[in-house]
Structure formats: C-alpha cells, structure tokens
C-alpha cells in the first residue's frame, strides 16, 4: 500500500472551514500535511482537525491585501508553501442579467475569479524560489457551458479555467503545475438554498445523486499529488456524468421494452 502523499507538505486552502474545503483539509492531514486555512470564519474547523496540524487565518479572498497577508503569514510560519488550493467561492443569485445586483456581481467575480489571481501572484514567486509548487483551483461544471440564471457564477468559474490554463503555460517549465477541478452538484453549505429543487437537480444527474464532498476532495488531492505529475493546465470534471449529457431527452424511456437491447 502506498504511503502518505503529503508528508510534511504545507497546504494553503481557501474556504477550508466547511464543505469541500473542510473535507480536503482533513484528507490532506490524513496524508501527513500541515494545512493553512484562509476563510471568512473559523466555524470550529480547528477543533475538528487539531491545531497541531492546522492553522486558521481570517480573511477575504476577494481582497488582494488579505490574500497577500495570508500567503505571507503561511510562509512566515512554515518557511514554505507547497500547494495552493483555491476553493473559496461565493454563490450566485438565480436571476437574469437585467435584474442582477451590480455590487453582488462584483463580489462574486472578486471572490471566485479575482481571488485566484490575487493568491497566485503572491504564491507563484514563492514557488519559484522553492523551484517547485502546485496550484489547484475549484471551478465548476458551470464553467463548461451556459446555465439558466447563473450569469455571475458561470462567468467567474469560466474565467478561472482560462486563468488557470494561462498560468499553467507560463510556469510549466518552472516545475509549477496548475490545474482545476470542476465539481457538479454536491450538498454543501453553499447549495443549501436549493431546498426542494435538490430533487430536480439530482434527477438530472446520470448517477442519480449529488456528489459527496469527500469524493470531490479526493480529485483535488490527486491533482495536488505527484500522481498527477504530468498534468498541468487541465480541468478535471467530477460530476456523476452530468456534463457528459448533450442535453437531448432520454428517448430510451420511450422505446418499447421488447426492443431494448440493454435488457436482453
């Protein structure tokens, strides 16, 4: 059985106090890492993870000064930064562009897209000094195509993908790998507002359910690890088959049973 992949690695995680970020933090620690969590609130994550392996920094990734302060604090504490996992995100209101609040639109772009830029511009020089580093960003299946009523969120996540790809090209020969995960629907604090719509969403997923945050976190750990040493500039989709669907109706439901080869 292979040993831990992140022994003594320093992992900087945004949005690490809950949801996907919290599950990823726990998995990183299970594999030997120290995690430095930047989030708006601590939410008891240090009690869960243990303060000997986790550090919390209160900050807003939508503010460049907070991002710089957090990265500097991480390096000051640990002497290095091996992996940056930008996972923090702000959800979008479900509305069309003419009715979208301007301030809220800018906040979503700042958190989701600009946050990656703000963090990378400080983290990459540190990784250049170390001659090695990894960045993983949480994008979304919303980055892969248009989605009804999600203008700001889809735009921010699509922008993240091309920012990720461009940085990956710029720094590939410096031994700095940069990739993204694209989760589909999963039950987290950010998706709690869906209420009864969850059933509608889950019925549209080929596997018939939302993803567990731990399942998606494992994909992030894969990209962060040496198991993905020849991957950079890639978007890894983790969505239960959602994005594999062309959008066409499932006509198989209407084919008479005697003609269905899959049941013979």
Automatic annotation (TrEMBL):
Keyword tRNA processing: no
Protein keywords: NADP, Oxidoreductase
Domain of life of the native organism: Eukaryota
GO molecular function annotations of the record: oxidoreductase activity
Similarity comment: family membership: Belongs to the short-chain dehydrogenases/reductases (SDR) family.
Name the UniProt record assigns to this protein: 3-oxoacyl-[acyl-carrier protein] reductase
